[in-house]
Amino acid sequence: MRGILLLLPVLLLGACGNTTATDVVRVMVWPIPIPDGLFETSEAIPQADWDTPGGAVRAETALGLSLGSRRGIATLVQEEGERRMWRTAGGVVVATEGPRIVATAGLREVVAATRFDGIDPLTRIGDLTDTPVSGARVVDVMRSETDPARMRFGLRLNCRVSAGPAEVEDTVLVRETCRGAASFTNRFWADARSYAVFRSEQWVGDGLPPLVIDVLGPGSAPTDFITLPR
Which stretch is the leader sequence (predicted)? Predict the structure, then answer.
C-alpha cells in the first residue's frame, strides 16, 4: 500500500512570511475557501519558465486547470519522481502522482490524502483494454468550514478502469468509473504511442465539478485548451 499525504499547506502560507507550525496545522484542518480571482485567466507562461540549463524545453512545466467556468495555469513547484506539486498564482495547489490527482488545497473542498490498495491501474495504461480491471483507493476529504462534521476520512472508492481508442486519432481514452463513498467517472486522454496523459477530467470532491487538467506547452494560455469528445 502506498500512502500519500500531499496537502502541502506550506505552499499556501509561504507568501505570508513568518509561518509557524500552528499556521500549518490550521491550514490542514481549515482549508482556504475560494475567493474571486483565484484562477488567473489571461497570463501565458513566460518562455523563461520553460528553459532548462541545457536549453531543452520541459514537457510538463505547467498545467491548464479548469474548474467549472474558472480557468487558470498551475506551474510546477516541486518534483520527486512521479510525484509533483503544481500551484496557481491565486493559491490553488494540485498534487499529482503520474496523471492522477492525489491531493488538492485552496478549494472549497479539498482532497487531503490518497492511499492506494495495490498498484494504481493508471501506471499501466499500455496494459489496459476494454475489459475493465479493478482498482481501489481510500481518500480523505475536508471542507473549508471549521465544522469537524464536514471532515471525512477513510472514504473507500472501488473503481473499474478500462481503455480504448478515442475519437481523436492516435489517442487512447481511459475511463475510470468509481463507486462507494462517492460515484463518478474520471477520463484520461493519452498518446497512443507513449501512453503519456495530456488531458484528464478528475473528481476532486462531491461539492465541486470535475477538475479538467491539460498539459501545456511553451507560451500556452488557458484559452488554448482543446475540446475533445467524451
Answer: 1-21
Question: Could you give the CA distance from residue 49 to residue 76 in angstroms, rounded to a whole number?
Answer: 10
Cα Rg for the chain, rounded, in angstroms? 17
Check if the beta carbon of residue 174 is closer than 8 Å to that of residue 187.
Answer: yes
What is the rounded CA–CA span in Å between residue 19 and residue 71?
A: 29
- C-alpha–C-alpha distance, residues 113 and 104, integer Å: 9
Residue 73 CB burial class (10 angstroms; 0-12, 13-18, ≥19):
buried
Categorize the per-residue pLDDT at 145 as very low, low, confident or very high, splitting at 50, 70 and 90: low
Q: What is the pLDDT of residue 26?
A: 27
171 near 124, Cβ under 8 Å?
no
Residue in this structure with the C-alpha cell 488554448, named with its chain if needed: 224
Q: What pLDDT was estimated at residue 143?
A: 84
Question: Mind listing the pLDDT tens digit for each residue in 19-67?
Answer: 333 333 223 322 333 333 445 433 444 333 333 333 333 445 799 999 9
Q: Residue 108 corresponds to which cell in the numbers above?
A: 472549497
CA–CA dist 113, 189 (Å, integer): 24
- Find out whether 106 and 130 touch, Cβ atoms under 8 Å: no
Taking the C-alpha atoms of residue 62 and residue 40, their distance in angstroms, rounded to an integer, is 13
State pTM to two decimals. 0.72
Beta bridge partners of 103: 95
Q: How far does the chain reach from its first CA to its final CA, in angstroms?
A: 32
What pLDDT was estimated at residue 146?
A: 60
- How far apart CA 3 and CA 12 sit, in angstroms, is 22
pLDDT of 15 > 50? The answer is: no
